[in-house]
Amino acid sequence: MSEIHRASTTAPVNIAVIKYWGKRDPKLNLPTNSSLSVTLSQADLRTHTTASCSSSYPSSDSLLLNGSPQDVSGARTQACFRELRALRKKIEEQDGSLPRLSEMPLKIVSENNFPTAAGLASSAAGFAALVRAIANLYELPASPTELSRIARQGSGSACRSLFGGYVGWDQGSAADGSDSMAFEVAPAEHWPNMRAVILVVSAAKKGVSSTAGMQTTVATSSLFAARASETVPKRMQEMQKAIKEKDFETFAKVTMMDSNSFHATCLDTYPPIFYLNDVSRAAIKVVESINVAAGKIIAAYTFDAGPNAVVYYLEEKEKEVAGLFKAALGDKEGWSGKRGDAIQANSEGLEKAKADSGVALDLLKEGVRRIILTGVGEGPIKTEENLIDEKGEPIS
Amino acid sequence: MSEIHRASTTAPVNIAVIKYWGKRDPKLNLPTNSSLSVTLSQADLRTHTTASCSSSYPSSDSLLLNGSPQDVSGARTQACFRELRALRKKIEEQDGSLPRLSEMPLKIVSENNFPTAAGLASSAAGFAALVRAIANLYELPASPTELSRIARQGSGSACRSLFGGYVGWDQGSAADGSDSMAFEVAPAEHWPNMRAVILVVSAAKKGVSSTAGMQTTVATSSLFAARASETVPKRMQEMQKAIKEKDFETFAKVTMMDSNSFHATCLDTYPPIFYLNDVSRAAIKVVESINVAAGKIIAAYTFDAGPNAVVYYLEEKEKEVAGLFKAALGDKEGWSGKRGDAIQANSEGLEKAKADSGVALDLLKEGVRRIILTGVGEGPIKTEENLIDEKGEPIS
């Protein structure tokens, strides 16, 4: 029997504070603007992926995600496979003693440690793990920067999950996308006390669905061009400076303004795209109340393409931010475990907030299904824990 | 006893299809962009105002609205009084035989035929009626255009209620506001079959309130400048052409896009301003379904600074548009009377729409409190029906 080659990694989710929305090249996933994200801890949210290859495998590549076979024939997955195989082929050609892994079928097994139904963009962690695992399998000398260029072709925001900490994605200008890659703004340890509480909105409260499409925004929004060409470039500079100086107030204000700007261009799309609903609005209102009560900005909301709120705050303000949400939403799933146990329910803060945002708090109680507690974390981590056994079978 | 001088008028509500939002001069109510509206029929929605003056009145001016005394000391009301008195003074100076009305205290009584609680911007009709009634009282030779310049200082959008039909408001460029006035795009009889159904959202469903402020948008939205300087000027041209050519599809598309653009700049404000809620989103979805079912655009939504939807359509599409809403919301207040009786509940259309927008229809049923049926109408109408009697007392 032929040898089974295996390598495994975990990769993180990232939540942008300057949003990616709009492609200048849909095939290559080249964005109309740069973006910036915080990589979240893999202790809380991660994709675990084992890539393997063997000449004994059935001839076509395969991918099993959370136990379900996935279609790998799509152009995006194929682009990642093709690019990684080409890099492997190059080193095989330089060293004839290396096994010809680039010619063997790939078998990939992937698992998320978070419910897909949570509505978190899992494709970023998924493609980052896929690319990193295959790069490990192929023993490629490629840097995270080079791998981010490949992962980008799988899912745009996946490129940012190749790094930990605070990560930018430079839109680049080359037509072939060769300079559209992620870069490290600062590692997690530079500003390790960044935390996030994610308010996951019940499916029942999601309301009217939108037929999303960032390309419809590019084509129809009269305000989009100003966002891409003026607003975001300015904010990219402000945000990098804020992160380098650990200036939370600026970080938070730019985060909130950029989330609003992104959703504004969605609303300005024809037909309009809505991701924020009344529960999201309530989360915004409660964050505003928390900041008013603190007399300065200590919490920042941001929303991806869905109603779930991600609220960033610093560990030292845990009581004022997460503690208030715990007092309001303590009966929801997600408060157990090491992070949740450490958070004190801030009933006093909640009482004060009720005066200003009682309706909003009621809406949150009604509409939030679960919470996720997390914080800034590392980039992909190599692991010896394989999801495929020595015989090439998925371990379940 | 001194003579009681009286004059009365009614004035209409208008609902913009290209929105006014942002002032370049807050004191003079000079806008950052031009706007355009449809004047609605006074049979359905109107303010009725009697202006009177007498040397026997108490020395200070007064205003009674729906039976409640109003503060007239505000700069906006004072500006209207001052400008109208100056015009009267001029003709008194030219003709010494005229009574010195400009020197007498004003007593004004006003009544709306629609509930204030309906959340309709009543200030436009209110200031238009106030200015028109005083102009009638003073027998001013002023044209609606000249009066619109005065009413604008009371409430910006009031200037458009001095005309019937389809009305533009030119932003103007003079620092003193002398060229920021309303103008007739087309009279009501040019395109008389324009109808509107207004979906009034329950107070209970209004959700999180916003601290509104168009000046906050001007100051903080990074997208607002593009709207004011590029988007709106282009749409003003498209809209005037569509009205002149009675091209409903263009009229409707520009109406919807401009409503979305306005609310997008509200969302891009810091802190964000929300007027649309889940019920508003549901109305948008149902309008989209109606248009998809028709295979062309036969209905257009627009939202002012609140969650109520105004849906424009042409009389010949009454069954497809208003009829569908009647089938869905027939149990709400507002379907009785001449307009409502003529509308056939379109149960067949509703059944079809359910497949595409069942959730949205449920949200509408839950969140709409009443409907108002109306259509394009005339400008202010002089009336002999006074709300103040010969003795100077309000008639209740």
TrEMBL record, chains A, B:
A single MF term (Gene Ontology): diphosphomevalonate decarboxylase activity
In terms of Gene3D superfamilies, this protein maps to:
3.30.230.10, GHMP kinase, C-terminal domain (3.30.70.890)
- Recorded GO CC terms: cytosol
The EC code for this enzyme is 4.1.1.33
| Pathway connected to this protein | Isoprenoid biosynthesis; isopentenyl diphosphate biosynthesis via mevalonate pathway; isopentenyl diphosphate from (R)-mevalonate: step 3/3
Q: Which Pfam families match?
A: MDD_C (PF18376), MVD-like_N (PF22700)
Q: Which UniProt keyword terms apply here?
A: ATP-binding, Lipid biosynthesis, Lipid metabolism, Lyase, Nucleotide-binding, Steroid biosynthesis, Steroid metabolism, Sterol biosynthesis, Sterol metabolism
> Diphosphomevalonate decarboxylase-like N-terminal domain: from which residue to which, for each copy?
11-182
Domain Mvd1 C-terminal, by residue range, is: 196-381
Question: Which catalysed reactions does the entry list for this protein?
Answer: (R)-5-diphosphomevalonate + ATP = isopentenyl diphosphate + ADP + phosphate + CO2
What GO biological process terms does the UniProt entry carry, in alphabetical order? isopentenyl diphosphate biosynthetic process, mevalonate pathway; sterol biosynthetic process
Family named by the database record: Belongs to the diphosphomevalonate decarboxylase family.
Name of the featured protein: Diphosphomevalonate decarboxylase
Question: Which organism was this protein described from?
Answer: Lentithecium fluviatile CBS 122367
Q: Kindly list the organism's lineage.
A: Eukaryota, Fungi, Dikarya, Ascomycota, Pezizomycotina
